[in-house]
User: Fold this.
Amino acid sequence: MSTIFTKIINGEIPTDTVYKDDQVTAFRDINPQAPVHVLIVPNKEIPTVNDIRPEDEQLIGHMFTVAKNIAQQEGVAQNGYRLLINVNRDGGQEVFHLHMHLFGGCRLGPMLPRK
Ligand code: 5GP
Assistant:
């Protein structure tokens, strides 16, 4: 069940960590899609949004607090940014350890590619 993100959280793989506490680890995406692209990851192994349980509500809320603090830290809070969570195949999820993307540092364009 563990993914590469557990190895990153445990410090077994070097990564560009921007924030860490006992609940959440945030690090720069290896393949950034924007000037600022940070992944906010719960230390607990939750595969997808579908697996969030009522007892995780505080943790999920904490992810948002961490996200807005990182946006401030990275200097994108004022101009704006995007928080995104992909879920399963149709959502484009590749790593099955819940994570929130924080994109910023440029005009991000439409939410979805226009068809
Ligand atoms: P998903 O498509 O699952 O929402 O996003 C997974 C993200 O994790 C992708 O943007 C991908 O570039 C990133 N990623 C995958 N493996 C690694 C890794 O080993 N290190 C880092 N920093 N990011 C990774």
